[in-house]
Amino acid sequence: MSEPEGSPPPGTAVPVFFLSDSTGISAETMGNALLLQFPERVFERTTIPFISTVEDARAAVALLDAAMDGPVTPLAFTTAAEDGIRAELATTRAPLIDFFDLHMNRVEETLGERGIRRAARLHGVGDVKRYNTRMAAVEFTIEHDDGASVRALDKADVILLAPSRCGKTPTSMYLALQHGLFVANYPLVEEDLEDSALPRPVRGYEDRCFGLTTTVERLSRVRNERRPGSSYAASTQVRWELRRAKDLFASHRIPVVDSSSKSVEEISAMILQTLKKNGGIASRQRRAAAQRPPTREDAQ
After folding, report:
1. Could you tell me the CATH superfamily of domain 13-111?
2. Model-level pTM greater than 0.85?
3. Burial code of 169-200, b = ≥16 C-beta within 10 A, e = fewer?
4. What is the pLDDT of residues 193-239, one digit of tens each?
5. 23 with 80: CB under 8 angstroms?
């Protein structure tokens, strides 16, 4: 397909604004899902969160209109819910993609009622129970990062196993913060890989274990950035560790995700799908219910 007339030349950064009356995470997520379809384009992203008044919206419009006077036409994505704020944002001269307006009317028609049209703070503390669960999961995950603690592993929903620098920590934190999962990650060191048995701290928890692997080239490169020229980063050492880890995972039927070409979000999605398939999420919910104090409803 040829470039539309007046489009910015390839390599020129396109200004992109994410506008929200909350944190901006939803606007970023949905907007970036569309921008990913243009891999050859360069985008200069700006997030403007917590637009809570018409005055805030007017200030955002001023920024957008100033960008319109620049050499490249900007894009703006908004998830603002309050009608007055949305109306003010709509006065901008910049192209505005209003996700709320695109979808809310149809939801209201289907449900047969009008939504409250207020900032829902999807990623805030509106749902206190969910927020507290996520914070408890983050605390657990930090405590159990990189084998720092093996205490209370029976509370873990997921235990990530992998040689050093295969992506255990970012995946653990994403699962904890975004999904409220209690995640431990355990580094497979040479001593572990010389034995066909699972490391002693994680034995008995095979149903919660997931293995991460990568390519020799990528792992060697990542380790070289940390310890240049070391035996730790040598291709021969890396190749041996990855091969032994693969054998260990196979012998214990542990699901494996290759992190070499996948984002943290993709790795996490694959883990979540496996948990659902194996009933792990339901088990987690039953464990959480068993651990909470009894309520008045329970006694009735």
Report:
1. Response regulator (3.40.50.2300)
2. no
3. bebbbbbbebbbbbbbbbbbeeebbeeeebbe
4. 999 999 999 999 999 999 999 999 999 999 999 999 999 999 999 99
5. no
